[in-house]
Amino acid sequence: MNCVQQVYEKPENAEVRRRTPLRIEELTDFHIRDRSRPRPNDGEMLATWDLDMQECYKQTRHQLEPVGQYILGWHDETTRQYNEARTQLLQGAVSWGEYNRRRQEIYTASNESLRQAQAQFNQELEAAHASEMRSRQIAAGIALILLGAAAGAAAGYAGGGYYPPTQNVSGYRRSDGTYVAPYIRTRPDSNPCNNFSSRC
């Protein structure tokens, strides 16, 4: 049982339950058309009910804090509207029926606001997830590059010394007298696919 249900179930709140049921769906024509206003001798009971409800809203807000700013914004605005409606009732400015109609209005608007807040929260979550995935992909790419470099170095060390995958060739003259400028080539081995000119 949540906090608001516990408040409503208190024996001293029987009049509140009779005039304004906990669930909006339980409001009847009687509740909507009720023109009576709180009686003066109900003041202490209603004040305690109001304080208990405000404490429930604080507890709910605390539970929602990890969810994010959009949901908290929705909760704070909805709470403000309910508190305002309850205050008008306690001051005798509205009847029980007017209070119940206001509850229905807040409930309807609140549901729409919650859908919007959830959509914004989901967008934020998806963006954070995409960013995290990009970070992980970058990290995995770097790890693969480092792993490849380490494997290449290990292969070079396997024969007792390090042999880089390329080698410098000094300039020279061919037998026909043509000068060949210095260049870099892949180290000769039995793998044709690791040569610069390879199309493997």
Summarize the structure.
The protein has 200 residues and is mainly alpha-helical. The protein has helices spanning 3-9, 14-19, 29-33, 43-64, 69-90, 96-157; strands at 166-169, 172-173, 179-180, 183-186.
Could you give the topology of this structure?
Elements: H1 3-9, H2 14-19, H3 29-33, H4 43-64, H5 69-90, H6 96-157, E1 166-169, E2 172-173, E3 179-180, E4 183-186
Antiparallel strand pairs: 1-4, 2-3
What does it look like?
The protein is mainly alpha-helical. The chain folds into two domains: 3-131, no CATH class; 164-200, no CATH class. It is built from six helices and four strands, in the order ααααααββββ. The strands form two sheets. It has a two-stranded antiparallel sheet with strand order 1-4. It has a two-stranded antiparallel sheet with strand order 2-3. Strand 2 and strand 3 (179-180) form a beta hairpin. Helix 1 (3-9) packs antiparallel against helix 4, helix 4 runs antiparallel to helix 5 and helix 5 (69-90) runs antiparallel to helix 6 (96-157). The two termini are 68 Å apart. The model is unreliable at 153-163 (pLDDT under 50).
